[in-house]
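cron nightly-structures :: item 1 of 1
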Amino acid sequence: MGFLEVDPANQKTTAYAVGDQAKVVIGECLAVLTLLASENVTRGDALVSAADGKLAKQAVGAMGEQGKVVAYSWEASNVTADAEILVHWCPAAEPAAAA
């Protein structure tokens, strides 16, 4: 599992043309990714994959119901719109029930 690296010459919403390279980041790293709107996270919260390639906070006691933990928040966010946050991307994280 990975995510697309945005080309600095383009915006995140720029569509790829036929023949363009789409670089995929795989493996553990720090990255700025999109958190779903209205997710209340603090540093260290487990994040799972959500709709449209965004992340959501793992729900309490939901081990396996939302898929595998793919990242951990490195900053807090509690806004009503989608938010760009710094995360520790580690798609090989062990699944665990949120407390």
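cron nightly-structures :: done
Residues 28-89 form one domain.
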